[in-house]
Write a structure and sequence with these properties.
The chain has about 300 residues and is an alpha/beta fold. The chain has one domain: Rossmann fold, CATH 3.40.50.720. The chain contains ten helices and eight strands. An eight-stranded mixed sheet has the order 3-2-1-4-5-6-7-8, sandwiched between helices. Helix 4 packs parallel to helix 6.
């Protein structure tokens, strides 16, 4: 994919998935605005891109406010003349079970993930519509947002909201030729270490120094951040101009299209339903095959 001439913003680009996205976009030819709250990390990624022959600028700031969002767009325009792609990746974790989660735990995570994505996407959409050339909003979701995850009320809610915003904005921005998609990556990062389903496998691979086994990369779709970056490059490219409103998973050897919430089973009652009538039809009818929930635990071998 040739992204020469395109300009991208990547939030949370100092490490992990964000760093992999920024490096891959730059390698494909895009100029990149590297954003992170960690000054050393942001400038390290900027330097790495420039050293490799790319173009990059760093903006050290926490996402979540309109001022920061406008500053990121301004940095793209000031340094590189335009904006084409936003990768809204920045995030934090404050994991606790429901009865131990504080208001601050909840609000902090939603401010960075959900409000940060909203503010950055709004500022980017305004600029892209002004330019009139279309563009790409690539929002980063999570399996926790698709299925729920123990101890992640705040994170799962934010990521589910991000997927919903992608579908909404795909409708609103279609006439402006701006595509909006959610990527759902699975990779070994500081954030995924907290997910019980993957923690043991990650620890074992790091303890032995061995790569993740093939069965884990394929069946569970778990790999490195670099494994997830090609999807972002593809969605940023002209080849993906017709793809919008989708939630697309990637990790290890696995690429997947997530389904949207939809009615699975339907029943009707003339004149409406009573509680007793629902009880009579539930087990043998509409509720006979209830949906699963939660991130499945990894299999224990090939």
């Amino acid at each position: 994919m040739d992204l020469s001439g395109k300009v991208a913003i990547v939030t949370g680009a100092g490490r992990g998935l964000g760093r992999a996205y920024a490096m891959a976009l730059a390698e494909a030819g895009a100029a990149v605005v590297v954003n992170d709250v960690d000054s050393d990390a942001a400038h390290e990624v900027r330097t790495a891109i420039i050293t490799s022959g790319g173009r990059a600028a760093a903006v050290v700031a926490p996402v979540g406010t309109d001022d920061v969002a406008r500053a990121l767009v301004g940095a793209a325009v000031h340094n590189f003349g335009r904006l084409d792609v936003l990768v809204a990746n920045a995030g934090i974790l404050r994991d606790r079970v429901l009865w131990k989660m504080t208001d601050e735990d909840f609000d902090d995570v939603l401010r960075v993930h959900l409000r940060g994505t909203f503010a950055c996407a709004r500022a980017a959409a305004i600029r892209l519509r002004e330019q009139g050339d279309g563009g790409r909003l690539i929002l980063v979701g999570s399996p926790a947002g698709q299925r729920g995850n123990f101890g992640q009320t705040n994170y799962a809610a934010a990521k589910a909201g991000i997927a919903a915003m992608a579908r909404t904005w795909a409708l609103e921005l279609a006439r402006a030729k701006i595509t909006v998609n959610a990527v759902v990556p699975i990779a070994v990062t500081d954030m995924t270490r907290t997910i019980p389903a993957f923690a043991e496998a990650i620890d074992e691979a790091e303890r032995t120094g061995e790569p993740l086994p093939d069965w884990l990369r394929r069946e569970e779709g778990l790999g490195s951040p670099e494994d997830a970056a090609p999807l972002v490059v593809y969605l940023a490219s002209d080849a993906a101009k017709s793809i919008t409103g989708q939630a697309i998973g990637i990790g290890g050897d696995k690429l997947a299209l997530w389904s949207h919430p939809a009615e699975k089973a339907v029943a009707y009652a003339d004149g409406g339903w009573t509680a007793d009538a629902i009880a009579r039809v539930w087990s043998a009818g509409i509720g006979a095959e209830p949906e699963t929930y939660g991130i499945p635990a990894p299999k224990q071998g090939p």
